[in-house]
Amino acid sequence: MGETVLVTGGAGYIGSHTALALIKAGHQVVVLDNYVNSKPGALDVVSDITGESIVVVEGDATDVDLVEKVLRDNNVTAVIHMAALKAVGESVDMPLEYYRNNLESCMATLEAMRNAEVWKFVFSSSATVYGDPDVCPIPETASIGATNPYGMTKEMIEVIIRDLAASDDRWKITSLRYFNPVGAHESGRISEAPVGRPNNLMPMIMEVATGKRDKVMVFGDDWPTPDGTGVRDYIHIMDLVEGHVSALEYLDDQDGYDVYNLGQGRGTSVLELIAAVEEATGLTIPYEVTDRRAGDIAECTADPTKANEVLGWKTTRTTADACRDAWNSQQL
Ligand code: NAD
Ligand code: UFG
Question: How far apart are CA 110 and CA 97, in angstroms?
Fold first, then answer.
């Protein structure tokens, strides 16, 4: 039978890929999204690829009554909460909007779940909660300390859901700390399509590869890393979303609250990622080294051992696969 899963923010980049993975694993999907950073089209493609329908409701996850109605109308059994604003720089300029949207959408969803007696909850957290890490690869036990309002919303929500799980043992709650999701579904039919100038490296490289921009600006080559450019743990989007399926399916065996890193466990520098895209596409990607970006850190890589051992989940795709699939998704 599988679960009937409400994915809030499910029309977005990670949500649409998650819907696909859930359906492939035999679950039913309901999406609630207000399209503040997405369009309905991606979910039509997911239905087309899978041959399964998705219930899609346009609306705001900050609305307790609406979320409760969606849960009850569709006999939802679990929720993956992805609805959030996610641009770090914007969150520094607009903290009130970020705290309101990200905290309220989460708390309203949890309140609606309690009213409808739905107790399984998976939260989209982020490696950003580790701030500038003391140790890489980072285990879940590392100290926490977000350095921007976006990251603070993730850190605050992790506290809220931990306390909630401790208050009533019917709750089963998992926080997934994502490292850097990149790439697209192998079909190339759904992709990451940011509105305006991309903040993140892979979408920026893709815009240079397609000729939309002249060059990638590399934010500093004087970091304490092997080639001086920033090192991150890029994880193929399909590996990341399969991690959600594993976490969801593990909830029946889980007591209360737990947290997992979702990453490859391998670092790649900015210049290495540019070279990997060149290799995958046969193109030359022009770049220019410029100043460091405010708030950046040298290195951020995951220790994914806990998710490997407890959830039985492992990444199976390489950074080269992610570059190929990201490029493939630009060809539509
Ligand atoms: P996205 O912007 O593509 O998707 C988020 C979706 O949430 C969008 O479709 C948006 O319209 C929707 N949304 C926002 N506020 C809403 C609200 N109040 N009610 C209903 N819908 C709302 O972003 P994504 O990259 O798919 O990220 C999904 C989740 O993963 C977010 O919580 C994000 O913070 C988290 N995350 C993303 C990354 C990343 O690098 N992409 C890394 C770590 C964590
Ligand atoms: N970078 C460039 N040029 C660009 C964009 C990025 O050189 O045009 C560099 C950055 O300096 C960094 C690396 O590429 O060294 C990766 O930067 P991203 O912006 O792609 O990713 P971040 O690691 O800075 O942050 C992302 C999300 C956060 C999330 C974090 C961990 O934006 O929200 O991954 O999941 F918290």
Answer: 20
- Distance between Cα 9 and ligand 1 center (Å): 6
Residue nearest atom 21 in ligand 1 by C-alpha distance: 33
What domain count does the chain have?
1
Distance CA(221)–CA(227), nearest Å, equals 7
| Tens-digit pLDDT profile for residues 67-121 | 999 999 999 999 999 999 999 999 999 999 999 999 999 999 999 999 999 999 9
Range of the domain at 251: 4-182+234-263
Q: What angle separates helix 149-167 from helix 95-116, to the nearest 10 degrees?
A: 20
Q: What is the CATH number of the domain that holds 107?
A: 3.40.50.720
User: Hey, what amino acid is at 305?
Assistant: T
Among residues 150, 178, 257, 260, the one annotated as catalytic is 150
Q: Give residue 201 CA to ligand 1 midpoint distance, Å.
A: 17
pTM across the whole model: 0.98
Residue 118 lies inside a defined structural domain of this protein? yes
pLDDT, tens digit, for every residue of 250-307? 999 999 999 999 999 999 999 999 999 999 999 999 999 999 998 899 999 999 999 9
In a domain, 292, yes or no: no
